[in-house]
Design brief:
Helix content: 25-40%
Order of helices and strands: HEEHHH
Strand content: 5-15%
CATH architecture: 3-Layer(aba) Sandwich
Low-confidence stretches: none
Shape: globular
Strand order of the largest sheet: 1-2
Largest sheet: 2 strands, antiparallel
Number of domains: 1
CATH class: Alpha Beta
Number of strands: 2
Bound molecules: zinc ion
Mean pLDDT: 79
Radius of gyration: 15 Å
């Protein structure tokens, strides 16, 4: 899945990274491991980019490298559950 255009602007990316570090208290959103340096954080799309092309801070969380790798393109469980629960209404289920 191409992420072309994802935070291409360096200044915007820096600003968003700084904002998310502060918002999430300098820790991984998933395992709560603290970040020692700014570079320890990766930006993760909470709802995968392939589903919702949204790169605003509300769809971004700070994740450590292992968590980002482990999650990859998976859906957060709560969102997957909501999606399944509403599948008939959304026309997603047979
Ligand atoms: Zn983590």
């Amino acid at each position: 899945m191409s992420k072309r255009g994802f935070l291409r602007n360096t200044e915007t990316r820096k600003r968003i990274r700084a904002y998310i570090l502060e918002r999430d208290g300098w820790q991984c959103h998933y395992c709560r491991r603290p970040f020692v340096e700014e570079s320890d954080m990766t930006l993760d799309h909470y709802i995968p980019w392939s589903i919702w092309r949204q790169s605003r801070p509300r769809n971004l969380v700070g994740a450590c490298y292992p968590c980002n790798q482990a999650k990859a393109d998976a859906l957060p469980l709560t969102f997957a559950w909501l999606l399944l629960r509403n599948a008939p209404a959304l026309g997603l289920a047979a």
